[in-house]
Amino acid sequence: MSYILGFVCAAILLFFFFLPITDRRTVLLKLGMMMAVVILYAAALVAPRAAEPFPASAQALLLSHN
After folding, report:
1. Can you give the pLDDT at residue 8?
2. What is the DSSP string of 22-42?
């Protein structure tokens, strides 16, 4: 899932990077959207992930010792 989010953020970033600058509003739009995408991508990288479950062999070992 994080790969898909990364590709989408990169595509959006490239779109706004190559957007031609015609006036002040375009510059503000371009900077704002690029910063939003960078912040979203950074948040996706540092967001905590759920821990993976124990492998089946470790679960069997834990159950056999009880």
Report:
1. 82
2. -SHHHHHHHHHHHHHHHHHHH
In a domain, 57, yes or no: no
Pull the structure tokens for residue 47: 């967001």
For the chain (66 residues), the mean pLDDT of every run of 10, in chain order, is 76 81 85 84 75 62 53
Distance from C-alpha of 66 to C-alpha of 64, rounded to nearest angstrom: 6
Rounded Cα gap, residues 14 and 25, in angstroms:
19
pLDDT at 15: 82
Backbone angles phi, psi at 48, to 5 degrees: -65, 140
Q: Is residue 40 part of a domain?
A: yes
State how many domains the chain has: 1
